[in-house]
Design goal:
The radius of gyration is 12 Å and the shape is globular. It is about 50% helix and about 25% strand. The protein is of the alpha+beta class.
Length: about 80
């Protein structure tokens, strides 16, 4: 059974964590490649937020909880 990608997770800039820390979290939590993590972190830093992953609600909830543990603000919304 394939689950539909019904939700997205948005990462918000907080001006507290370094780009390197955010990149590390993206690599470890979302399995981003280093260049992808660097690009996402730079967009979050410049724009203030960025949709970093899409999937079903349960997957996105796991991702959100992991980012919460790192002290980074995320939000789950329907895509």
């Amino acid at each position: 059974m394939v689950l539909e990608k019904t939700h997205k997770i948005t990462l918000y800039n907080d001006d507290e964590h370094s780009l390197a820390f955010v990149q590390s979290c993206l690599i470890n939590i979302c399995n981003h490649e280093p260049i992808q993590a660097a690009q996402c972190a730079t967009i979050v830093d410049g724009v203030g937020k960025y949709d970093i992953q899409i999937g079903n609600f349960d997957e996105m909830l796991e991702v959100k909880l992991s980012f919460d543990e790192c002290g980074l603000k995320t939000e789950i919304t329907e895509s």
